[in-house]
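Colleagues,

For the teaching module next term, I've prepared a clean inverse folding example: a structure given as tokens, and then the sequence designed for it. I'd like students to try predicting residues themselves before seeing the answer, so please don't circulate the second half yet.
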């Protein structure tokens, strides 16, 4: 949560992946400290409800991640992220809408979904299901076959 966790507000249903850094202060002010010895700049980070922050993303001070948004892995977020958007890059820029991404994901899943997938696989947290090993085996077998031409090599 950074060095000032009291400046971070995280909404409900938020995923923050491995290696994400939330910077609530601007370390670059260090170069002005000879002239201004006590100079420090701080700012809050607000992550609203239903957001996904990808692995190793960096979020700088005074940034709000809007509701229902996705920050792609490795992105550096220096300005507010509008609600319902996907941002990526360095610096992060709006790449698309969550609605278009949802349509794309549903189409791909409908095309590649195993025909007799275990019912627990539909649970939001199937990875903690007691049937996890069976579900993973089923997915591995199906996806290996589904993508066999692309995986030849």
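(Answer key — instructors only)
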């Amino acid at each position: 949560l950074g060095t000032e966790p009291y400046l971070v507000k995280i909404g409900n249903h938020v995923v923050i992946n491995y290696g994400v850094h939330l910077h609530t202060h601007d370390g670059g002010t260090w170069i002005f400290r000879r002239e201004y010895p006590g100079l420090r700049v701080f700012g809050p980070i607000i992550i609203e409800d239903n957001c996904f922050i990808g692995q190793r993303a960096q979020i700088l001070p005074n940034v709000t991640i809007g509701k229902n948004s996705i920050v792609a892995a490795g992105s550096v977020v220096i300005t507010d992220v509008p609600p319902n958007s996907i941002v990526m890059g360095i610096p992060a820029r709006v790449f698309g809408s969550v609605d278009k991404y949802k349509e794309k994901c549903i189409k791909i899943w409908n095309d590649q979904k195993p025909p007799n997938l275990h019912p627990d696989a539909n649970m939001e947290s199937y990875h903690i299901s007691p049937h996890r090993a069976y579900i993973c085996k089923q997915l591995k077998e199906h996806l290996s076959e589904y993508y066999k031409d692309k995986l030849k090599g």
